Amino acid sequence: MAASQTLDTIERDAYRRSYSDGIIDTFVGVSLLWIGIAWIWLPDFAGLAGVFPAIFVTPLLAGRKKFVEQRAGYVRWSEPRRSWERRNLMALLVAGTLMFVVGVGLFLAVNRSGDFSLFDSIGPGLLAFLLALMAVGMAFLLDAWRMLAYAAVLIIGGIVASVADANPGWPLLAAGTAIAAVGAVMIVRFVHSYPNAAADDDS
Amino acid sequence: MTTAEQSSLDRLIHEPARLVLMSNLAVVDEADFVFLSHQTGLTAGNISSHMARLEEAGYVVIAKGFVGKRPRTVYRLTRAGRKAFDVYRVQVAELLAGPELRTQ
User: Fold this and answer.
1) Which residue of B has its CA nearest to A77?
2) Which residues in chain A touch residue B104, judged by CB atoms under 8 angstroms apart?
3) Which portions of chain A are predicted below pLDDT 50?
4) Is the Cβ–Cβ distance between A202 and B70 less than 8 Å?
5) Where are the alpha helices (DSSP H) in chain A?
6) Chain A residues within 8 A of B47 when measuring between CB atoms
7) Under 8 Å CB-to-CB from B8, ≥6 apart: which residues?
8) With contacts defined as CB-CB under 8 Å, which chain A residues touch B67?
């Protein structure tokens, strides 16, 4: 144990390591990639593209838990940590709902007024900006600051798409590719760092 | 702190490997053998023998079970174990309190 470690850093480092498997990153990246592809090449399905990640997220998280526990071990976090997780999850849900309500409100307001100049200027990057906000929320929820880098990639992609008046799918495709690649590297590193334990040696 | 008080440090916790195990268990509710071995870098035999000592003292509860076909051993600090660890932390903090380090 390093001399600079305290009980707080022991817990925090362990918590961060429990999300270092890269599965969530890969899933987020592939989901963005798929939505981007649908938006660009399958415009008829663009609206439904987000449904598939939503369907897969629950079985994926269950599978991830099993995968991580088999390799890195099982831990039940302390009540303060679990309470912190619940608070952040609630905040993320509230933020997501607010974003949805604001998005629908904006759409209705613009539709009613017939003034589409706002969407004309930022429209191509709007989806990327909203997803960047979600990435910021996940950074706090998972105590995983790499999510802020993902948010930055989405924002830059959104700005480029807005300036170039590109299809909104391009920033998602670009960010999705980058995030999925990072996730894949993390999975390989995790599997290498935590070989599958054949058995519990204390049994 | 007098010499007598210094010698009243809980020797069971004071041993380095057990101190590392107790520290890691103190910051979670419970954890299994695999998690602790990754966290501490201790060998299987070390963890087993030290946990057995801590269990004898009533500081740790050991629960053996299965997840599917895989055996799993889960460790948890008892209330007495947490209290003993807290007392130990206070004693060590008092013992080591003093002037600024000269080697900084």
Assistant:
1) B28
2) none
3) 1-3
4) no
5) 7-17, 23-41, 51-72, 79-113, 117-142, 146-164, 169-193
6) 201-202
7) B91
8) 69, 74
Q: Which of A77, A194, A200 sits opposite B70 (nearest CB)?
A: A200
**pLDDT tens digit string along A120-171?**
566 778 888 888 988 888 888 777 788 899 999 999 999 998 888 888 889 9
Which residues of B are less than 8 Å from A201 in CB distance? 33, 37, 44, 47-48
B24-50 b/e with 16+ CB inside 10 Å = b? bbbbbebbbbbbbbbbbebeeebbbeb
Tokens 């020797």 found at: B11
The answer to whether B29 contacts A74, with C-beta atoms less than 8 Å apart, is: no
ipTM above 0.95, yes or no: no
Note whether A78 contacts B70, CB cutoff 8 Å.
Answer: no
Closest CA of chain A from B85, distance in Å: 12
Neighbours of A140 (CB within 10 A): 16
Per residue in B5-50, pLDDT (tens digit) is 556 899 999 999 999 999 999 999 999 999 999 999 999 999 999 9
User: Which residues of A, range 59-118, sit inside 8 Å of B by Cβ?
Assistant: 69-79, 81
Q: How far is A75 from chain B (nearest CA, A)?
A: 4
- What tens digit of pLDDT does each residue of B81-95 get? 999 999 999 999 988
Global confidence as pTM: 0.80
CA dihedral A152, A154, A157, A162 (to 10 degrees): -110
Contacts of A130 (CB under 8 A, 6+ apart): A99, A103
Query: Helix, strand, or coil here: A197?
Result: coil
Q: How large is the greatest C-alpha to C-alpha distance in chain A, in angstroms?
A: 70
**CATH fold of B3-96, please?**
Arc Repressor Mutant, subunit A (1.10.10)
User: How does the average pLDDT of chain A come out, rounded?
Assistant: 84
